[in-house]
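[recover] target loaded
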């Protein structure tokens, strides 16, 4: 269960207008009279399953790798490799962007490809269904189902 407690000031547009705060059973809202011009809000969220989020699974798998001493070097190496690859790609993109004709040409190619993709897969219903079938087939092949 997660909870958030915030102490928010009233918007500037509401000067002279008395705000009406109505507490509900799901979202309790309390206004404290000793803090004029401020509203305290308490929000609670609950979830039935914590394993539904893939980001939590990724974090747990990295933590499991980090806990074993022989895999620490591999995790550090992969992290450094990702940072170096990102830095290199940014520099390559900046270098290509400085060339006189290439950015305009690549933009034109991107517009042509986007137009073709919209015409081929998104404009008509049978083509959209074909695209969804291809995506579902690719996802099932990747997941091994």
């Amino acid at each position: 269960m997660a909870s958030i407690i915030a102490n928010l000031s009233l918007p500037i547009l509401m000067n002279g207008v008395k705000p009406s705060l109505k507490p509900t059973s799901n979202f309790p809202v309390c206004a404290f009279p000793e803090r004029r011009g401020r509203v305290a809000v308490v929000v609670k969220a609950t979830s039935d399953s914590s394993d539904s989020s893939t980001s939590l699974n990724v974090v747990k798998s990295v933590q499991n790798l980090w806990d074993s001493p022989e895999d620490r070097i591999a995790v550090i190496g992969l992290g450094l490799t990702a940072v170096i690859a990102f830095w290199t790609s940014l520099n390559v993109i900046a270098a290509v962007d400085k060339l006189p004709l290439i950015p305009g040409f690549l933009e034109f190619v991107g517009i042509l490809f986007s137009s073709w993709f919209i015409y081929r897969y998104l404009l008509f219903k049978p083509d959209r269904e074909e695209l969804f079938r291809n995506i579902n087939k690719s996802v099932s092949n990747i997941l091994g189902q």
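[recover] notes: DSSP finds four helices and three strands in the chain.
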